Amino acid sequence: MNLKDKKAADTRQRFITAARELFLEQGFGRTSMNQVAQRAGGSRANLYLHFRNKPDLMLALMQEVEPGIRAPIREVFDLPEYTMESILGWLADMATLWREHSVEFSSIEQAMAEDAAVADEWLQMMRRLSSSIPELEDNEERRYQFIISLMSLDRNFYFLYVHNQDTNEELVHRSLARQWLTVFEL
After folding, report:
1. How confident is the model at residue 151 (pLDDT cuts 50, 70, 90)?
2. Does pLDDT of 1 surpass 80?
3. CB 18 within 8 A of CB 34
4. Among 75, 55, 73, 61, which Cα is nearest to 18's?
5. In whole angstroms, how far apart are CA 170 and each of 139, 162, 175?
6. Which of 54, 48, 65 is nearest to 12 (CA)?
7. SS (H, E, C) 52-119
């Protein structure tokens, strides 16, 4: 990479970092491109050379987040056995991940509600994740059950840990565990 390309990559990353900070502080909807440019110490013109709009920034953030969520989700296939208790243990780990990243997940949710491209990328991320798991390669029905179970986990954990829904967490986890057990029955 030559010096010009490195400088452009560094500038792009500064914009992504600034957007992440602002999305976490004030949410996706209340963050403007002007604020991102100011936080990054750049100009709006330079920001628009790298990103067309806020959804483009969110897509870049999602691409950065994807590897970090892939491993914890993948761990369900590394369990020594597939029982209610083992799946509940994995779900407890996933709940910790959701609690730690609830603000980021809330920003992604806001962006998905505002922009179809962000929602499409979220679905593509689910599909890429399922395609990367060898245990799902030869069983299309199992792969779909995995995606559906992952979407159910996402929705339920969003309401539990982002919106702090007043519900019985243990029963939600047990219901999700029963759903996840079907992935391993196919």
Report:
1. very high
2. no
3. no
4. 61
5. 31, 17, 9
6. 48
7. CCHHHHHHHHHHHHHHHHHHHHHHHHHCCCCCHHHHHHHHHHHHHHHHHCHHHHHHHHHHHHHCHHHH
Phi then psi for 163, rounded to 5 degrees? -95, 0
How far apart (Å, rounded) are the C-alpha atoms in residues 144 and 130?
A: 8
Looking up tokens 């996840």, which residue turns up? 180
Rounded Cα gap, residues 8 and 39, in angstroms:
17
Tokens of 45: 């013109």
pLDDT in tens, 77-87: 999 999 999 99
172: left (phi over 0), alpha (psi -120 to 50) or beta: alpha
pLDDT tens string 12-54? 999 999 999 999 899 899 999 999 999 999 999 999 999 999 9
Dump pLDDT digits (tens) for 84-117. Answer: 999 999 999 999 999 988 878 888 899 999 999 9
Cα separation, 99 vs 160, in Å, equals 9
Domains of the chain: 1-51 (1.10.10.60), 53-183 (1.10.357)
Q: What's the mean per-residue pLDDT of the chain?
A: 93
Neighbours of 88 (CB within 10 A): 15
- To the nearest 10°, the Cα dihedral for 127, 71, 122, 53? -130
